[in-house]
Every structure is written in C-alpha cells, then in structure tokens.
Target: Lcl C-terminal domain-containing protein
Amino acid sequence: MQIRSVAYAKRALFTVATVFFLSSCGGGGSDANSDSGTDTDNDSELLVNAGPDDTVTEGATYSLSAEVTGGDGEYTYNWTASPSLTLTHEDTSSSQASFTAPAVSVATEYTLTVSVNDTSGNADSDFTIITVSPVNIAPVADISVPEWEGLEENYFPGGVEVILDGSASSDEDASDSSDAISEYSWTQTDGTNVIVGEETNLSTLTFTTPILNDEESITFQLEVTDSEGATDTATVTLTVQSKSDTLPVVDAGYSQGVFSGEIIILEGTASTSISEAEPLTYSWGQSNNVSASEYVASEKGGYVSIKAIDDTDALSTFAIAPSVSEYTVVAYTLTVTDAFGNQVEDTINVGVRVMPTPLINDTGFLQQATDNALTQAQQNDWPGQDGQRGADIVEQNGYIEKAGRGKAGFDFTRLNANGDEQDASADTWSCVRDNVTGLVWEVKTDDGGLQDKDYLYSWYSDDTNGGYAGDENGDDTSCSLTSCNTQAYENALNEQGLCGFYDWRMPTHHELFTLMHLGLSDSIAIDEDYFPYTGTVGTDPVWYWTSVPSADGVNSEDAQNAWALDFDSGVDNFLNKSSAARVRLVRAGR
Model:
C-alpha cells in the first residue's frame, strides 16, 4: 500500500542514521563490538509490510503475502480479519495465507492484519484493506397471462378487463426473495394503445381490450430492475377478437337437488362487453330424459297440464321438478343469442328424487317472502323458503295423490260415530283421521255436550307430570264434568267410546303441532273444513293443552307448568297447570 511503503522507507532511513551516529561517537566502541564477534545485522529493527490494498469479487480465492525485514530472520506470522473472515493459514512460519471472498450485496471492505514475531521477541504488524465486490446476477422478468374460458391461450374478447401479472419475476441473488424486484415498468410496443392513463410501474398491468372491427394483436413489454441495478425484459402478445366474434358471457346458475313437484330456481346471468351486440335474447330448455310437460291429477277431477319451465324466454324463471320413479339428473340449459347471431349455452344439472311418503304434515305455508313483503309469486332472489319446498308446494303443483282431502299438503278423512270413513261432503262427522300421520282426532261441537267448543280445562295428570300432577279445577275452567281438568276429560271421552275407540289421550307437543296450518293468514291455524269450532281469531290466544310438562316454572323440583299451542298465532308456550285452556284428544298414529 503506497502510504505504508513511504513510512517503511522513512523508518529504515531513521535506523541507518541512528547507527551512523552511534559509530561516530565514543571511540573504541566499534572495536569492542568487532572483537566480540557479534553480527550487528541481526540487531536491525523488525519491519513487516502486509501488501497493497486490493479488490476481489465475491466467491473468488484471494492470496495474502507479507514481506518482513530485520529481526533475527526466524519469524512467526498471524493473520486476522475484520469483519471476520475464514482464513486459511496452515503454516505460521510462512507469510502466505488465503481466504474465499464471501457473498455480499454491496461492496464491502475487510481489514486484513498480519502480526509478526521473531525469536528474539521483536514484533511488528501491518494491515491491508481488501474490498469484496458483489457479482450481480441479473433478474428474470416473467409475465403471467390469465386464461379466458372458451378461448385459446392469449386470446381475449373485445372490451374486457385483462390483468397481466409480473409478480413472478425473480432475482437469484436477491438478499430478500420476497422483495427481489425494486422497479417494474410496463410499455406497449404494438397494437391499439390501451395503457394510456393506466399505472405502468406496478407488478401488474390492468387494461381493457379494445373493441375493434377486425382481430388485432397487441404486445406488451415488462422491464424489471433488481436492487443492484440490473435489468431484464419480457414480452407477451395477446390477440383481441373482433366485436362480431366476441361472445356473450353466460351463467345458468347453480346445480340443485329437489323432490318431484318442488320448485327449481333457474336464475341465469348474461352479459356482453359489446354494446352493438345488444339486445341479448334468452331461452331455457330441459333435457329430454324426462317429459317437457306434465299432466297431473286435478283435485276437481281429470288431469291438467303444467309447464316444466314457467317462462322459457326469461333470464330469471323457475321450473317444476318432473315426476320421476327413481333418482334422475335433469339438465336445464340457458341459451343466449346476441345481435350478431352468436349463441352461447350454459347448463346446470338438477338431481330430482322421488317425493317420499310424508310421515308428518308440512306447515301449510305457500307464501314467499322478500325483504319487505309476502307474496304468492316465485322469489328466485330468496331461495330455499318454505313456500318453495316440501309437501305443500308439491301438492299445489299436483304431484300428491291424497287418500282424503284437505288444504295444502294436509290429507284428512272424516269418520262417523262408529269410526267408519265418510265422504268429504258429509254434513256431520265425529272424528278426523290424518292420513299423513295416522293419528285420529276428536272434533269439537257446539251443542253443550262433552266436546263443546267453549269448555276450558286445567292441566292434570297423575302419571307423567314432572313431579306435580297439576290442578283438578283450575282458575276460570268450565265444562260439563265435576272436575274440569285434562285427565277427567280424557277419562270421560274414553267411557263414552267416541267413534268406537277407547284409547283417547292427550296429544304430545309434536302431535298437536302437526295440525297447525300456518299458511292461513286470516283464520284460525287449522283446516276448519275438518276441525270446526276450534276457536276464533282475535286478541286473545286460543290455547290447547299438550301432554308435556314444562321444565320452566319448576318449584322444589316440581314442574308447575305444561306446554300449550296457540291456534291463533301458531306459537307455543308454557302455561301454569292451573290455567284454563282447550283440549283436543288424539289416538293411534303410525
């Protein structure tokens, strides 16, 4: 190193001058020295030179070598580095050492110091600065192009948004692989300019393809720069269809699973990016593995035809699931035609199952709700409602053959005093059989007899009662019996043998609820053609007792309440067993 070399020369001159000065003073000294036989050259000062400063690239092997003068000629060398390096110096009697330049992201200085000792205890040291420079591997630009469904690679319709993605560009020697690229720059090199006003310094480029009379190619270039200033470019060419070849985008909706006679929602979407291609026209079709129309039995006799699809030319419509004898997949296809005559289809598959024999009545509810109203119209925007599923809508669509009659999905048969079936037009009847559940129910009267509609009873049972039998004559009860409670009424009806049966009992909560017709908005919640005198719609609830004690209202572990159903509002609640409520007894069942 230049500066150290000058210092070394000055130090050597100073040593020579000193020796000369001592030789000229004090006579006889030189003779005495020469007589002693001592070699005055070995007494010269020990000096070391670590070598010149230098620059080396990362990964290269660099050799170190020191030069020494003076001393007794037998030296020990020790090399150190700051910052730390792995040095190779196997022989300390040799000035030769080496190291492999480490990987660096920027030019980095390392100070290499050599310390020398001789056998006489003399010591000296010197250093050299070695600069390690990075070897920059250029980045690799990469452009990812999205695929457009139905078109070849790198083909796109006119007037649609496209996003080119350069985020997969990489730099092999980046210190942080997650932040390898410091700059992105997009340019368009060919075709109708589509990037004016777009951000071109992001990892992605977003633009809208041009609307053209003829097909055209447009080319884009991405240049990426790494943190060390190296660059790379990539290009991609896209083909844009002409406006007359650009097809509408069509979606037939979602596949479904339904029972025969239920509603299939056909909610398609269609659009075009070409204004001249409008208006779009629509057509729904059904696969031919089932009949295109159905003939179903009419409640008034004979058969009526129902359309498989309500409005085949509407984008949003519905179909009635066809009658099948086994699980069948039915395809519904939406065909969209634009003003250029282009047609695009999309298909959904609907799994249709045989409607099972119901073991419980549906709710009777056929209305459908929007966000602010109830309506009888099909509501595709609010799918899966009660009014679109279940026995009631299946019956409305004519797919349920009843043993008797009844509103919505209910199926009742009138029984006479002997328990025999009566025609649906009979003026009098004593009991009603529910052909869905198999339960037989008593019918209330308006004759002041045992079953009169105005009688009210407290809840009482000395069997299953939750720890408290109840009240034999509760508040405000009234009846033709000595004790107006549910157990007394049950015993009396069995003694009478209503309809020839002697196993009448209080209904469970579940059983009593099967009679509720929740679709009747302006009358009591039951089919009054079969169950007259149930009650009157008004401000007061029309409570009917169930046989089920309630866990609410427990006093000293005894249930003070029992469950009842309100045939006015359709709700259930627990009442104190002393309360007065109506009773409808039941028997049999599946």
